[in-house]
Amino acid sequence: MISIKMLLGCKICRNRVLCLLLSALACVYSSANEIESSASAYFLTDKELLKLKNKSLKGDGDSAFKVAQFYTFSQADEDEAFFWYRLASELGHQIAMTNLAYLYHERFDNDEKAIEWYCEAEKDGYTGAHIEIARIFDSKGVYKNALNHYLLAYFNDNEKEASEYLTKHYLEDKYQFKDLVKAYAWSLIWLNSLPVNTYAYDKSLKVNKRIDSLLDGAEKEAALKLAGEYKQFKSEAEISSACTRVTTNRTM
């Protein structure tokens, strides 16, 4: 099976793969109106492109983002696209920030810059920042940092994804923090965050039952209590600022 990573390593394939992935990012992080308006940016006349560039250079982040999209999807020009994504990000365009962060991680292997821009996107209201940062740390094997950012994602109202990853981190040996009681507690939160009769719910239920079979009655009771404490703690927790730790010394 050919992976995304393998394709990105291929000079011929890389542009097309990055275009597809950035297109997916734009669809996920945009409203319906933004998607419709961004689609028009894929096809620009020379006059329209020049107009957008002039507006961008005068401080219009939306125009800079449209130029970046044009170079990404119509021209497959990574260097030009990167320049305009960076300009749009500096002008405060949230979707551009997430795309720029992605490019820093995938294309340039510059995780420091990637994390910096995910943090900027979070300040602008993007709730997926800590999940993305945690994934970066996971990819590098820095599991403690990943765990911390999954916790931050949970506290920043990204309960479904965060609780899933926290379940896995406490369940699987490779993450170095195996704790079946905590894994069960997070699996309960994960399960209860999902609508029933869906693929995601069935997936969560399967994991929950697997952990349940490994625990005795006292351990299950402890996990139930812990899950309740996590939910209560979330309602009381205060996040001091973007991309910083929760203002508590408690170990989750």
What does this structure look like?
This protein is mostly helical. It folds into two domains: 123 residues, Alpha Horseshoe (Serine Threonine Protein Phosphatase 5, Tetratricopeptide repeat); 94 residues. The protein contains 14 helices and no strands. It is elongated, with a radius of gyration of 21 Å.
Q: What's the domain count?
A: 2
Largest β sheet strand count, sense and barrel closure: none
Helices and strands, in order, run as HHHHHHHHHHHHHH
Categorize the overall geometry: elongated
Topology:
Blueprint: H1 4-8, H2 11-29, H3 32-39, H4 46-57, H5 61-74, H6 78-90, H7 94-106, H8 111-123, H9 129-140, H10 143-155, H11 159-171, H12 180-192, H13 199-212, H14 217-236
Helix pairs in contact: 2-7, 4-5, 5-6, 6-7, 7-8, 8-9, 9-10, 10-11, 11-12, 12-13, 12-14
Protein name: Sel1 repeat-containing protein
InterPro entries: Sel1-like (IPR006597), TPR-like_helical_dom_sf (IPR011990)
Keywords: Signal
What keywords describe this structure?
252 residues; mainly alpha; Serine Threonine Protein Phosphatase 5, Tetratricopeptide repeat; 2 domains; 14 helices; 72% helix; 0% strand; disordered N terminus; disordered C terminus
